[in-house]
Write a structure and sequence with these properties.
33% helix, 8 strands, alpha/beta, eight-stranded mixed sheet
């Protein structure tokens, strides 16, 4: 279920997203009896699935990754890369696995869909996640968009209950101003970057905080970013802290950026 993507990818393209997943979801993966992750729509080459397994096993040694692609030819081409903990299957948004995965990563998949289709895809994928229990928040869906070499990336994190947060991540040395990330907003937000919408207000305020933090540039782009984000916390529900900010990230509650209407 779904549409074949262009399939273009590059090694290390999703490293920022993977690092964030490992840091924020690693404990859930370690606690799970069978920590299965899905790389949905990995593309014409399986690099992103191979890398996801490597990065997840750094925090959860029993993690398994299944690459899922709707194009049978891509699945066949990926089979030589299959090994212990890594497999490939034909499928789409239905997630053709016998159980419920603890992680679904869908990067650069929904960008070709209409905005009106996103909510239904999110609901379908969230319904396939491992459910929340007394000791777990359940599975995690990470859906977003990045540039061709992974310098700029924005993603939404969703649990079984729906969207939770939005994360903006960038290579700080390549950034002129935070609103440069607008071109990488996920499909649910990219058409909402207009006056009157929360995401537009957020990026406007981020640019203002970035400009106000210009004196910190003499200490490097990282220090300027961290100061700008710290100033943002006065008006926006930032959910992370300096450890993540140092990586060129900031995460905000979904409710603060969700489209109006």
């Amino acid at each position: 279920m779904g549409t074949v993507t262009r399939g273009t990818t590059n090694p290390n393209r999703l490293r920022r997203m993977d690092r964030w997943i490992a840091a924020t979801h690693g404990a859930e993966l370690r606690r799970a009896g069978d920590p299965v992750a899905v790389d949905l729509g990995y593309g014409a080459a399986p690099w992103t699935a191979v890398e996801l397994l490597h990065r997840l096993r750094g925090v959860a040694p029993r993690a398994r990754v299944v690459g899922v692609e709707i194009d049978p030819a891509r699945v066949a081409a990926a089979q030589p890369y299959a090994r212990e903990g890594l497999g490939f299957r034909h499928g789409g948004f239905e997630i053709p696995l016998p159980g419920r995965p603890l992680l679904v990563r869908a990067a650069n998949v929904l960008r070709q869909y209409d905005e009106a289709e996103v909510a239904a895809v999110w609901r379908r994928l969230c319904a396939r996640l491992a459910p929340a229990t007394g000791h777990s928040r359940g599975g995690l869906l990470v859906e977003g968009t990045c540039d061709e070499i992974g310098r700029r990336h924005v993603w939404v994190a969703l649990g079984p209950e729906g969207p939770r947060t939005v994360t903006f991540a960038t290579r700080l040395g390549s950034l002129d101003r935070p609103s440069d990330l607008a071109e990488r907003l996920p499909k649910a937000l990219i058409h909402r970057n207009v006056p009157g919408e929360p995401v537009h207000a957020f990026l406007r305020d981020f640019d203002r905080a970035w400009a106000a933090a210009a004196p910190y540039a003499s200490y490097g782009a990282r220090q300027r970013w961290m100061r700008a984000v710290r100033d943002l916390t006065a008006d926006w529900p930032v959910t992370d802290g300096p450890v993540r900010w140092r990586q060129g990230e900031v995460t905000v509650r979904w409710g603060a950026l969700a489209p109006r209407g």
